[in-house]
TrEMBL record, chain A:
Keyword Ribosomal protein: no
Family designation: Belongs to the binding-protein-dependent transport system permease family.
GO cellular component: plasma membrane
Gene3D superfamilies: MetI-like
Major localisation: membrane
Keyword terms: Cell membrane, Membrane, Transmembrane, Transmembrane helix, Transport
Subcellular location: Cell membrane
Organism lineage string: Bacteria, Pseudomonadati, Pseudomonadota, Alphaproteobacteria, Rhodobacterales
Domain ABC transmembrane type-1: 77-257
Record-given protein name: Phosphate-import permease protein PhnE
TrEMBL record, chain B:
Keyword ATP-binding in record: yes
EC number: 3.6.3.27
GO molecular function: ABC-type phosphonate transporter activity; ATP binding; ATP hydrolysis activity
Pfam families, sorted: ABC_tran
Protein's recorded name: Phosphate-import ATP-binding protein PhnC
Upper taxonomic lineage: Bacteria, Pseudomonadati, Pseudomonadota, Alphaproteobacteria, Rhodobacterales
Enzyme class: hydrolase
SUPFAM superfamilies reported in the protein's UniProt record: P-loop containing nucleoside triphosphate hydrolases (SSF52540)
Alphabetical UniProt keywords: ATP-binding, Cell inner membrane, Cell membrane, Hydrolase, Membrane, Nucleotide-binding, Translocase, Transport
ABC transporter domain boundaries: 2-246
GO CC terms of this entry: membrane
UniProtKB/TrEMBL annotation, chain C:
Coiled coil region boundaries: none
Taxon lineage: Bacteria, Pseudomonadati, Pseudomonadota, Alphaproteobacteria, Rhodobacterales
Name of the protein: Phosphate-import permease protein PhnE
Pfam families: BPD_transp_1
Subcellular location: Cell membrane
C-alpha cells in the first residue's frame, strides 16, 4: 500500500476541551482532596477499640435480641407507625389545597406566592431541625413527631402536585372552561382526574418516607422507634439495636412492596 | 468455509425458530438470506456466533465446531466472525475510532482496551479501514453525531477490524433510505469480493437481495424452502417463501431505484471480470 | 315526557365498585381515628396549648441574631462540606460494583450475589444517615470519620439502586455487538455498558452529593462532626440567637449546593 496511516491515536477529551483547563481542574481536585483528607483526625487507638465494639454490633445484627427490650421496642414501633399514618393523612389533606394554590395556571398571583412560600420553607428545612423546634414548643413525644412529618409531607407533596397541575393539558381545561363551569367545577372535572392517580401514588410513597423519617426524629425527642434505638445504642445494647434496625429494614421493605402492589391495584 | 449441519433452535417458550437447517457457504460467496419476518433469519445468524445458543446441530467454521465450545474458546472463535447489525449497534457514546478498535477487543488484553492503548498495528488497521469506508476525517467524532449511513460504515469497519474469516450481516439497510441502502450494500459486497470473504446477509428487501447477492436462501418458519441463484427466484419460489404476500409490490421501485439497479449491475459485472 | 325512556340516574362506577370504594375510605378514616387515639394517649395537652407562647418566646430570643458567631462557624462548615464530599466519593465507589452485582443483565450469579447486593441496597436505603452516624459514633468514636462513613453507607443504597436501574435499561444491541467481537466479560462491561451509563452515573453522584450536603449538616447532633456539633451545643444552652444564625448558614449552604449541582448536571447532560 502506498499510503501510510498513523500508528497512534489518543481519545479526544470529551468534557473539557482546553488542555490548560483540564490540568487546572485536575490539580484543583487533587488539592481539595489533600486538604479535605487532611482535616480528618483519626484517633487510631479509639478506632482499634471501636473495632471490637463493631464486632459486637455485627454479632448483634446477626443474632438480634427482640425479647429483652420488647416492651420498649413495641411501644416505639407503635408510636412510629401511628405517627406515620396520621401525619401522612393530615399532610396529604393539607397539601391538596396548598398544591392547587401553588399551581400558576389555576390561581391568582398572591395566592400562588403564599403557597409556594410555604412549600419552600417546608422543603428547605430538614425534618430533624423542624423536629428540634417542635419538640421545644410542644414537649417530648410523638405529637411533635406527628407535626414534623405532617409539615414535611406538605412541602414534598404540594410541590409535586403543583408541578403536576401546571403540566396538565391545557386543552382539557379549556374544554371544561368552555362549558361555563365554575372554578370548583373546573378543578373537579379537568384537574382532579388527571392528577388523582399520581396523587395516590405519591401519598403511598410519602407514607414510606415518613416511616423512615419517624425512625430518625426520635433521636431528638420526637417519639417513635428512633428514641428506642437511641437508648439501646447509648446503653451499648447492640443486640437490641440490631433487632430494631432489622425491624426498620423489614417494615420499609414491606411498605415498598406493599405500596407498589397497591399502586398497581388502584390503577 | 462455513457448514451448518442440522441446526435447530427452540426457544424456552416452546417456539421452534429453526428446524434442521443444513447449509454450506463456500469461501468468497455472498449469500442472501430472505424470508418473512419471524422466519428465523435473525436466529440463524445469531446461532452461528452463538449470540443465541442453538438447541442442536453443528456450526462448523473451518474445522471447528462452534456449537460445542466452552466460554473462553467461544470468545476466541468469535474473533473469526465479524458481524454487522441492524440499526448499527455502535456504542453511541464512544468515538468512531473506539468503535472500530472495539473490533480488536478479542485480541488485546483488558488493560490495553481499558486505557485505549492499542498496538500500533491495530491503530493503523483501524485508520486504513476508516479510509476504506470513507470516514477518515471522522475518527474523533462521537458515533451518535453521525448519520445513519455513516454509522453503518463504522459498523462495517468494526467488523472488518476483527480480520474475520466470515461476515454475518443482519438487516444492514433496515433503517436506511433506498439510496444509502444501495451504497452500503455495494460497499459490503465490494469489500468482501476484495478479501474473498464469505458473507451471510440477512435481508428483507427482495429486489436488493437479487441485485447484490450471488446466492439466495429462502427461509420460511425455520426451514430452508429455497436455495439457488438470484435469477432462479421466480414468482412461484417467492410465493413459496412469502406465502400469499404481495411481494410484487415490493419490486415496484421509483425511477431512482431502477437507475441505481442498473448502475449496480454494471459494477457487479466489472467485479466479476 | 320524552319518547324514549332514558335512565335518569347516571353513575360513573357500578354500585359494587362504589361500595368497595366507600368501604375503603371508611376503613382509612377508622384507621386514622384509631391511630390518632393511640398516638395521643400520652400527650400532655397542656404543653400543646402552651405551644404558641413557647413559639413566641423562642422567636423573641432569636432576635437580634448573633452575627458575631459566624467566624467561629466557618471551620465546622468546611468540615461539613468535606463530610458530604468525601462521603459521597466513598459511597459511590462502593455502590459502583454493587450495582453491577444487582443488575439483572450483569450479575455474575442471580441466585446468590444478586440477592445479597439487593439486600445491601435496601438496608442502606432504609436506614437514615443520622442513624448510621449514631451507630458509628458509638463504634469508632465521635468525629469527622464517623460522619464520612455514615454518609458513605447511606449513599450506597441510593446510588446503587438508581445505577442498577440504569444498567438494566442499557441498550442490549450495543452490548450484543461488543460481545460478538469476542470481547471478554470485563471488556463487554467497559465498552458496551459503562459508556452507556456514564451520564446517569455522574448525574446520580452529583444529585446524591447535593442531598448529602443537607444531611451532613445535622450529623453533628449525634457527634459525627461538622456544623451540627455547633447546632447541638447552641440548642443545649438554649442560645436561640446562635441557633438562628446556624440555621441561616445551613440554608445558604443548601441553596448554593443546589445551584452547583444543577449547574453540574446540566453540564454533564
Amino acid at each position: 500500500m502506498s499510503e501510510t496511516y498513523p500508528t497512534t491515536w489518543r481519545r479526544p477529551p470529551q468534557i473539557i476541551r482546553s488542555a490548560r483547563w483540564r490540568y487546572a481542574v485536575q490539580l484543583g481536585i487533587a488539592i481539595y482532596l489533600a486538604l479535605a483528607l487532611g482535616t480528618i483526625e483519626v484517633d487510631w487507638g479509639r478506632v482499634a477499640d471501636g473495632l471490637a465494639r463493631g464486632q459486637r454490633f455485627a454479632a448483634g445484627f446477626l443474632q438480634p435480641d427482640f425479647v429483652s427490650r420488647w416492651a420498649d421496642i413495641s411501644r416505639g414501633l407503635i408510636e412510629s407507625l401511628t405517627m406515620t399514618l396520621t401525619s401522612t393523612v393530615v399532610g396529604v389533606l393539607i397539601s391538596i389545597p396548598v398544591g392547587i394554590g401553588a399551581a400558576a395556571n389555576l390561581v391568582p398571583a398572591p395566592v400562588y406566592f403564599v403557597c409556594r412560600g410555604i412549600i419552600a420553607v417546608s422543603r428547605a428545612l430538614q425534618e430533624v431541625i423542624i423536629a428540634i423546634f417542635l419538640v421545644a414548643m410542644f414537649g417530648f413525644g410523638p405529637f411533635a413527631g406527628f407535626l414534623t412529618l405532617s409539615f414535611a409531607t406538605i412541602g414534598f407533596l404540594a410541590k409535586l402536585l403543583a408541578d403536576d397541575i401546571e403540566e396538565i393539558e391545557p386543552g382539557q381545561v379549556e374544554a371544561v372552561r368552555a362549558t361555563g363551569a365554575s372554578w370548583t367545577q373546573l378543578v373537579n372535572y379537568a384537574v382532579q382526574p388527571q392528577v388523582m392517580p399520581r396523587l395516590i401514588g405519591l401519598s403511598l410513597y410519602r407514607l414510606d418516607i415518613n416511616f423512615r423519617e419517624s425512625a430518625v426524629i426520635g433521636i431528638v425527642g420526637a417519639g417513635g422507634i428512633g428514641a428506642t434505638l437511641n437508648t439501646a445504642i447509648d446503653r451499648y445494647e447492640y443486640d437490641s439495636a440490631g433487632a430494631i434496625l432489622l425491624l426498620i429494614i423489614g417494615i420499609v421493605m414491606i411498605a415498598e412492596y406493599g405500596s407498589s402492589y397497591l399502586r398497581k391495584f388502584l390503577q | 468455509m462455513l457448514h451448518l449441519d442440522g441446526l435447530s433452535k427452540t426457544y424456552a417458550t416452546g417456539e421452534a425458530a429453526l428446524s434442521d437447517v443444513t447449509l454450506t457457504v463456500p469461501q468468497g460467496q455472498i449469500m442472501g438470506l430472505i424470508g418473512p419476518s419471524g422466519a428465523g433469519k435473525s436466529t440463524l445468524i445469531r446461532c452461528i456466533n452463538r449470540l443465541v445458543e442453538p438447541s442442536s446441530g453443528k456450526v462448523i467454521l473451518g474445522d471447528v465446531d462452534l456449537a460445542r465450545l466452552g466460554k473462553a474458546e467461544l470468545r476466541r472463535q468469535r474473533r473469526r466472525i465479524g458481524m454487522i447489525f441492524q440499526e448499527y449497534a455502535l456504542v453511541e457514546r464512544l468515538t468512531v475510532m473506539e468503535n472500530v478498535l472495539s473490533g480488536r477487543l478479542g485480541y488485546v488484553p483488558f488493560w490495553r482496551s481499558l486505557l485505549r492503548k492499542y498496538p500500533a498495528r491495530d491503530i493503523q488497521t483501524a485508520y486504513r479501514l476508516l479510509d476504506r469506508v470513507g470516514l477518515m476525517n471522522r475518527a474523533d467524532s462521537r458515533a451518535d453525531a453521525l448519520s445513519g449511513g455513516q454509522r453503518q460504515r463504522v459498523g462495517i469497519a468494526r467488523a472488518l477490524a476483527q480480520e474475520p474469516e466470515l461476515l454475518l450481516v443482519d438487516e444492514p439497510t433496515a433503517s436506511l433510505d433506498p439510496k444509502t441502502s444501495r451504497q452500503i450494500m455495494r460497499l459490503i459486497t465490494e469489500i468482501c469480493a476484495e478479501r474473498g470473504l464469505p458473507v451471510i446477509v440477512n435481508i428483507h428487501d427482495v429486489p436488493l437481495a437479487q441485485q447484490f447477492m450471488q446466492r439466495i436462501v429462502g427461509l420460511r418458519a425455520g426451514r430452508i424452502v429455497f436455495d439457488g441463484a438470484p435469477a432462479d427466484l421466480t414468482e412461484a419460489a417467492l410465493t413459496e417463501i412469502y406465502g400469499a404476500e404481495d411481494w410484487n409490490a415490493m419490486r415496484q421501485g421509483d425511477s431512482e431505484q431502477a437507475e441505481a439497479e442498473a448502475d449496480a449491475a454494471r459494477r457487479l459485472e466489472a467485479l466479476a471480470k | 315526557m320524552t319518547a324514549h325512556d332514558y335512565p335518569e340516574v347516571w353513575q360513573r362506577r357500578t354500585p359494587r365498585a362504589r361500595l368497595v370504594q366507600w368501604m375503603g375510605w371508611l376503613c382509612l378514616v377508622a384507621l386514622f381515628v384509631w391511630c390518632w387515639q393511640v398516638m395521643t394517649a400520652n400527650t400532655i395537652w397542656a404543653f400543646v396549648t402552651d405551644a404558641p407562647r413557647q413559639a413566641a418566646d423562642i422567636g423573641s430570643r432569636m432576635w437580634p441574631l448573633e452575627w458575631g458567631y459566624v467566624p467561629e462557624l466557618l471551620l465546622p462548615l468546611w468540615d461539613t462540606i468535606n463530610i458530604a464530599t468525601l462521603g459521597t466519593i466513598g459511597g459511590v465507589a462502593m455502590a459502583f460494583p454493587i450495582a453491577f452485582l444487582a443488575a439483572r443483565n450483569t450479575t455474575p450469579s442471580a441466585m446468590i450475589l444478586r440477592p445479597i447486593a439487593l439486600f445491601i441496597i435496601v438496608a442502606s436505603r432504609s436506614i437514615n444517615s443520622l442513624i448510621w452516624a449514631l451507630l458509628l459514633v458509638a463504634i469508632i468514636g465521635p468525629g469527622l470519620l464517623a460522619g464520612i462513613v455514615a454518609i458513605a453507607l447511606r449513599s450506597i443504597g441510593f446510588v446503587g439502586k438508581l445505577l442498577y436501574e440504569a444498567i438494566e435499561e442499557t441498550d442490549a444491541r450495543q452490548v450484543e455487538a461488543v460481545e460478538a467481537t469476542g470481547a471478554s466479560g470485563l471488556q463487554v462491561l467497559s465498552y458496551g455498558i459503562i459508556p452507556q451509563i456514564m451520564p446517569a452515573f455522574w448525574g446520580i453522584s452529583v444529585f446524591r452529593w447535593d442531598i448529602n450536603i443537607r444531611e451532613s449538616t445535622i450529623l453533628g447532633l449525634v457527634g459525627a462532626g461538622g456544623i451540627g456539633l455547633k447546632l447541638n451545643a447552641s440548642i443545649n444552652t438554649l442560645s436561640w440567637d446562635e441557633v438562628a444564625v446556624i440555621l441561616l448558614l445551613i440554608l445558604g449552604t443548601v441553596v448554593v449546593s443546589e445551584w452547583v449541582s444543577a449547574k453540574l448536571r446540566r453540564a454533564i447532560i
